Amino acid sequence: MDLAVDIGGTKTFVAAFDEDSLVPREVSQFPTEPHKGFEDFLRRLTETGKELLGGEQPRIWAISTAGAVDNDGNVLWSPNLAWKNLPLKQTASRFFGDRGFVENDCNAAAYAEAWIRGSKNLAYVTVSTGIGMGLVLEGKVYRGSHYAAGEIGHTIVEEEGPLCSCGRRGCLQAVSSGRGLENLIWSLTGERLSCEEIFEKAKIKFEPYSKVVSRGAKVLARFLTNIVDALDVEVLVLGGGLTKNEFYRNALVEYLQRNYYATPGKKISVELSKVQPNPGAVGALLLSRRRFGGIV
Ligand SMILES: [Zn+2]
After folding, report:
1. Of 219, 251, 221, which is closest to residue 236 (Cα–Cα)?
2. Which of 15, 19, 44, 167 has its CA 20 to 30 A from that of 207?
3. Å from CA of 154 to ligand 1 middle
4. CATH number for 181
5. Model confidence over 137-189: pLDDT tens digits?
6. Ligand 1 centroid vs 169 CA: distance in angstroms?
């Protein structure tokens, strides 16, 4: 069997697949709890992996993780996990064998979404607590010169905008992400509301909720319009919790479809994520199979 893992800031998803299948045979999840340290996390990961595989070694394994990952499977840095310079692939190989691959979660998800659609140029954007992007260009994952391509959460979209967790002002994440919207409402009203609660109030045009959400969606939509125009991708895939909210998603899609630069014959398809149950884990598995065998 093959093993695929997605390490998120809150939860780690683990799934066992029959060889050449993309439908998991068994799935498990556990809290990542990165503060307990990398060794402790690995112990829990290998226990869960071995349980799913009935004590056997996987044929092929794959891990998608938050953070920048180099070509040797080292996690260079991951603000969400507070991990730095970790030899993730090398360490995981001790338990799971040599046939493994580690990829950044957004890159892996983009690859899975492109693979399932047969698309050559695709951007995958995830909007939840933070904002991230993965790119497949000319059929390949684009990682950039410092393995940081797609790090759009901390690009500045407003000079004097709200303070961001990175210490700067006006980052995309501070204006448009789930945490950004929650913090903005908190600073304006003193209320600690969840994003869902904010969306409910915004939907009935209640101020300042409506204004904050519309501005967040518009700023992100303008940014994504520039991305699809600059890279001329054919599909933009929306993932992450916030894009499941119809009100927020519609605001994004409507702006984008109205404002992208429509040169002759150009059509941009904005779609929701199609890959189940976890695009990052499935994408990493596809990349690992491409390297070591099996269907791709
Ligand atoms: Zn920032």
Report:
1. 221
2. 167
3. 4
4. 3.30.420.40
5. 999 999 999 999 999 999 999 999 999 988 999 999 999 999 999 999 999 99
6. 7
Residue 46: Cβ-neighbour burial (10 angstroms; 0-12, 13-18, 19+): middle
Q: Are residues 159 and 146 in the same domain?
A: yes
- 172 CA from centroid of ligand 1 (Å): 7
Which tokens in the block code for residue 71? 């070509």
Whether residue 136 sits in one domain with residue 67: no
Residues 97 and 207 in one domain: no
What pLDDT score was predicted for residue 295?
56
Dump the DSSP string for 185-204. Answer: HHHHH-----HHHHHHHHHT
- The range of the structural domain enclosing residue 61 comes to 2-104+277-292
pLDDT at 296: 52
Statement to judge: residues 194 and 251 lie in one domain = yes
- Same domain (yes/no): 116, 67: no
| pLDDT at residue 9 is higher than 70 | yes
Q: What is the pLDDT of residues 177-193, one digit of tens each?
A: 999 999 999 999 999 99
User: Per residue in 197-218, pLDDT tens?
Assistant: 999 999 999 999 999 999 999 9
